[in-house]
Amino acid sequence: MSIGPLKRRSSWPSSFVTGLIGWNGFFIILAVILGDVSTGKVLIFGSLAATAQVLILRLLFFVLRMDRSMLAGGVWGGITGAIVVIFEMQITSLFASHAVAWLLNAIYIGVAVGLFLVYFYRDDRKIENEASEKVAAVDYGRDAHWLEPFFFGAVAYIVAFVPSSLDSAAVILVVGAVSGVVAAGVSHFFIFRTPRGSTVPVFLCILIGVIQGALSGLLLRRFEGDLFFSPLIHGTIAGSLTYLMTAVRGRALAAKEISPV
Asked: Are 131 and 9 contained in the same domain?
């Protein structure tokens, strides 16, 4: 059975998706915090930055020895992230009023993307080598579902906030997607490290979702006039739904790994 490129985290398509999510996610969040930047333009330049950085890192992946070192991934990720945004600053005034903040944000994003590219490459190779040693088909297991948390978070936040414009939809989608990734990490900690059949992890995840969701609502205060309730209430609902979906899905994947069909 063939494995789709987006289920293989180290594939070229997956690398670009990783970059697009990272750059647009943190670009939008910073734009919301600063409050005086067009989110539409930020998405354009975030996407351009992501595409440029990933293309550079993937083309020079082995030359930069990123296949052998997480440190190399972080260092080169930070350098290329800074270079890309410094170049963008030369062609737009979008980042002029908070240049230092945008540059630091770019370095942070660049480091994260570089580290993820290295981690995905090394982890996929490990899985593939183990399958080769066992003379078995490659199975990435739950790692093949790495994109699902982004979807869960995005859906939960759209349902909870019901955006009234393209601008609000873009911000809500990004905040939701990032929240979904955090939820997946937290859920993974509980789901795969507690006794099978226990419902406690799911309730703990939802409780954390309530807290995280309320805090994320602060990022969406600019749309308060379009909401039925306080952004904190909408955020609480969104966070709870996000954690509920990721926890239930994580539980199902954990059960499948223990008792594969």
From this structure: yes
For residues 123 and 28, membership in a common domain is answered with yes
The predicted pLDDT at position 231 comes to 93
Model confidence pLDDT, tens digit, residues 197-253: 566 667 777 888 899 999 999 888 888 888 889 999 999 999 999 988 888 887 777
* Number of structural domains the chain divides into: 2
Are residues 159 and 230 located together in one domain of the fold?
yes
Q: What is the pLDDT of residue 223?
A: 86
pLDDT per residue over 144-195, tens digit each?
777 888 899 999 999 999 988 877 888 899 899 988 888 877 765 555 555 5
Shared domain check, 17 and 132: yes
Same-domain pairing of 125 and 181: no
Give the pLDDT score at 38: 76
Hey, how many other C-beta atoms are within 10 angstroms of the C-beta on 177? 23
Is residue 30 located within the same domain as residue 156? no
The whole domain housing 198 covers: 147-258
Decide which of 139, 167, 199 is a domain's last residue: 139
Q: Same domain, yes or no, for 98 and 169?
A: no
User: pTM surpassing 0.85?
Assistant: no
